[in-house]
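Much of the work behind modern protein science is quiet bookkeeping, done one molecule at a time. The protein below has been through that process, and both of its lines are reproduced in full.
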Amino acid sequence: MIEELYSPKTYPRPVADQIEQMGALAVSIANRWLLGWPKRVTSLLKSGTYLDSLSSQVGQEKDILANEANLRHLARREILELYEIRESPPAC
């Protein structure tokens, strides 16, 4: 089952569309960010840096997860912790 974007009306329509076009991992990260750090998400949206930050996070997570097939026994979150990848959005 594909995860849907949580509270899509939080985002300007073009931003929500772009998040969905970026794929399932982007939607998952966007949901994690909005549920855990709504004020940071709002700040990133206001500053116009949200999509760049999300794209960067997606790239980091994809690279690590693609190269760590030997760690598949761990949850995605645990693998990211091993590489000290932050779960939160950057502070604006």
Residues 73 and 79 are 9 Å apart (CA to CA).
